[in-house]
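Working notes for the structural subgroup meeting. M.R. asked for a predicted model of this chain before we commit to crystallization trials. I am recording the input and output together here so anyone reviewing the notebook later can reproduce the run.

Input as submitted:
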Amino acid sequence: MRTIIVDDERLAREELKALLSEYPAVELIGEYKNTIEAKVAIENDAPDLVFMDIQMPGETGLELLEKLKNPPRTVFVTAYDEHAIKAFELNAYDYLMKPIDPDRLSEVFKRLTEENQTPASVVNNDKLKSGNQVLIKDGEKVWFIKVDDIRYFESEGNYVKVHFDKFKPLILRSLNSLEERMDEKLFFRANRKFIVNLNHIVNIENWFSGGLQVELSCGTKIEISRRQTIRFKDQFSL
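Returned structure, recorded in token form:
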């Protein structure tokens, strides 16, 4: 896995190199102290993975990622958490806080390894239906719950927030991959950000631009996009 590091602090680069040395799959092909050098390297060397700081002299790491036409998987490594939302809007692969927690770094590589293996949809393509139970793990916390108890899924960058009972753990899955596993008779993709449990819808009303808004049993209101509204009506109208 051809990897580069972008950080203006030498000690930060050295710390990250030491951590990455624990992963045999990593081939470190370069380290750079600003986005100007990094942009040239990315365009010429096409790395598979980039670990990049955000706050650097001149252009930020976010600005660089935004201007790249075909960006590689980018993991931001920063001391500031206020940039996380913007990072995931730019499809950053992950977001690590300094000092780097080795366990969090391990999660990144576990996910990379899983993606390089046979897709989960091929290994297990059984639909999750009413009555099924699922195991959800977020850090040290684990839940084993019925699919029916999940009110909705909410996309958070490369993660998905699962809403059930009073909990909303984050899992390392994309909303698209979850949609493939869900029984369409139980769950419906409302828009790019939400999948809702149909059995938890308590109210529906017309919304702007030809869309719909649904209210769930917990009181949360979610808009169904105009495109998905057409599908919703086709699927459920008499």
